[in-house]
Design brief:
The protein is α/β, with parallel strands linked by helices and 406 residues long. It has 13 helices and 15 strands. The protein has a 5-stranded mixed sheet with strand order 6-5-4-7-10. Strands 13-12-11-14-15 form a 5-stranded mixed sheet. It has a 3-stranded antiparallel sheet with strand order 1-3-2. A hairpin with a 3-residue loop joins strand 11 and strand 12. It is globular, with a radius of gyration of 23 Å. The structure holds zinc ion.
Length: 406
Amino acid sequence: MPRDGRDPGSPTAPALGASQEETRRQNLGAVLRHVHLHGPTSRAELTSRLGLNRSTIGALAGDLATVGLVTEEAAPTAGRRAGRPSLVVSPRSGRVYTKALSIEVDRLRAARIGLGGRILDLRQTDRPPGMSAVDAVGALAALVRDMERLVEADRVCVGGAVAVADSTRAPDGRIRIGGPDDALRAEVAAQFADGPAVVLGDLADIAGLAEHARGAAAGSDDLVYLHGGPGVSAGIIVGGRLVVGHRGHSGKVGHMVVNPDGLPCWCGSRGCWETEIGEAALLRHAGRHADAPGAVAEVLRAAVSGEPTASAAVDHVADWLGFGLANLINVINPHTVVLGGSLRAVHAAGTGTVRRRLDELALPTSAPRQVRLRPAALGRDAALIGAAELAFDQLLADPLSVGVPG
Ligand SMILES: [Zn+2]
């Protein structure tokens, strides 16, 4: 996945022999990335945050304003000090946007997300059981056309990305393997041929990028984002970079075998972590019917209010959650673990159980007590926000390359 996860907002130290033009490109990217991630920032603040001198920041901000990526305005005076106020540099959220799309297990979502991460418009529709991811692209393209009909002519789309869940629901309601593949890539290229490139990524990876950039793991460069739903998968970021694997399919932690005597998994194996901590496991332990709509949320609510069967079910899943997490912590040595989807509530209700397992099973060298376990901060929008981050990547790496008219 083409994202450099280095410390967001930091200027890049020029490589030995880098040309002035290359240095300027990197510094333009650093200024734009800073205001994209942190919002309106004064020139004075940019000067101290990015370690560049005032005149350089002034010139960079001026260049970004000229091409229509930022505005510069005098900050409202607080009335405390006289003197010339520092201009405030703001991303032009309403003008420059990306198409952020998600193919989730049971729904499809499309958003326009502006520079700065603001959701400008959002559409969604159900994804019926049996709808292939390839067919879902046509439905997403229709949502995008519907949104873009209303967009004013001077708005500029600089790219797009689709977050694709690695599970899909078959017509019989069972979960099957899905995720980005070549056929899906070809369909996305065909459906969005008229605009800037639309890239694909795994949904958990992309949600992990979002939590890294703007959510519960902001400032943490070694993290595991763990998402629970019908399936369980992870977005893993090490040293600020997303781990994607040789074919782009790393992070399938739901199929880590934790219980060889456990239940068969839909992947063909037995005792996968997913069979112990996925939504189906929670419902099974709670004695609820798996097909009932809203059943997972109902069990989680009941557990919070102390209903004994639901509480026991959540605690059982929390125990297995801690078991698998201890293994991941031993392998990856993360600074932060972010829990999303159904695992967010499982962890909230069963923190003590999870921590006990980590104390018991994680190596002391991994410092399990220091690992921050955090609830996902971006909720159901994480996939869209992360897709926008991915789609903005080229603009942020080289702000003048994208051809935004001034
Ligand atoms: Zn499996």
